[in-house]
């Protein structure tokens, strides 16, 4: 987390001088930062930190994210990081579950505390009126440090002390005030378990990391998702007033405009490939972080297709990319010793795209359904 911002470089800050990046250029920059133009040779821990964490509302989502991005990714590597406490699952950006390195968890969570507090106030503020939240958090921290607990159990125990408050709201207060990690086997690839929680500092043995600054967070975000607007940064993180952090970074950032004239910021030496750079087909898992990292998702997902990817109850479906853009969704259905990959494009496929998806789909099945017989089926023209 102690990544330094780029060294200053002479730049023109006149808005009129900022070059324009079209959607294809922004798309290729995103894919390069997200390790999706080609699979990279790096460890799972290196990738977690390069990408500033992975969405993990689905326990297996980070495994599919790393499979799509790394050469020869083995789920056992990520399982090992979780079991060895080098990676953890906890609420961070936007108060949603992320899988991050233990280093990043310790550094990021203090900065993101206001995001957790705002989420708590929005969802449970009225139901917690008059409750001493510091006392609730202190007791919740003590109990979960003694033994990892589910939110249901924790809320029930707390309600014995605060009988006029709802158990769900009391457990949520602890979640917001205390950095709670989900302990394995929750989050493992081949097995899972109930979500049980314990404080981050207890789980990591009292390790210390310097708290991240908002300037460092901007640099980390741009490393993984740039070029981007201040609004994009705020949507991804859940923080407000990041315009001040961008201003303080000053000449250490370069400026662009998108086709709508919105000001974008980036790191001087970050990759910005040509918009015509080849982009191979990729299957992405549920809740892929690229789809949740921007106020304007048009560089990766068209507004027309958004409703087919984001469900009314907050799910983000597995999708596949063609020429760098979301072009359809997929699902694997297993029965006995058989696994079927169902591929549903949002528009008719060319013969070449169908063939390329078939090759990548076979690779996906070999990863996700090892030991089973495989079949790939294309479902064309299906509307939700």
TrEMBL record:
Keywords: DNA-binding. PANTHER family: LMO0824 PROTEIN, WINGED HELIX DNA-BINDING DOMAIN-CONTAINING PROTEIN. This is Winged helix DNA-binding domain-containing protein. It comes from Cohnella rhizosphaerae. InterPro entries: AlkZ-like. Pfam families: AlkZ-like (PF06224). One of its GO terms (molecular function) is DNA binding.
